[in-house]
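Q: My labmate handed me this sequence with no annotations at all. I'd like to see what the chain might look like in three dimensions before we decide whether it's worth expressing. Could you predict it?
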Amino acid sequence: MDAPRAPDAETYSHGHHASVLRSHRWRTGENSAGFLLPHLRPGLRLLDVGSGAGTITADLAALLAPGEVVGLDGAVAAVDATAALAAERGLTNLTAVQGSAYDLASAGSGFDVVHAHQVLQHLADPVGALRAMADACAPDGLVAVRDADYAAMTWYPDDAGLSRWLELYRSVARANGGEPDAGRRLVGWARAAGLTDVVASASVWCFADPEDLGWWTGTWAERLTESAFGRQGVDLGLTDPAGLAGLAAAWRAWGRREDAWFAVLHGEVLARP
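A: Here is what I predict for the chain of 273 residues:
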């Protein structure tokens, strides 16, 4: 089991630049929470930890109406984005609150489902966060988590720039207190947190058609040169502005290839508190 790290040692590697929020808005209940959807029905109460841009949260709120859904995030920009999306879609059962993944009191308690997508990978103490999620559940509730596994990402054709990007990302994420290869660790973390009836699965995002590839490669190119991720890499001494510009150009060039194909593997866990 990985040794725990102090929560005060962590930094969100992506930041909340427009390129990051734009990337997150692509996520839906269908493409990012499919493992959970069969367990949902109208009227259930759900807490979404790390709601981000709010698109998954809003989709889940639409499915569960009139059941209460709360989207919690530590960043004001994310809370505002979720609240704005709820208003835009007329989701009166969805509220957004600011709070920590380690202390969910501001969101309430007794939830039928507590969900987190792409959250645990950024935390210094994912086991502690899972314990907090279990505490926020009703006794017969369900904890649902999904995280990418960066080391398992794969693409074709091979490209030295993308390989360097992956090396840089994993180094920055670990320096920030996170675990970029979280997907493979979810089962162990869930059991260490005392969760029971742990059921594991996996699923992928696949980017292969020109529109999807243009979006995926474009957002990563922009993140490298404009978002907090790139600045963190420079501050940590892992790269420099010229290196970031080179990686951004590599992403864009690779994405224009007719045979380009990229897959993102995710680990998933459903468990009881």
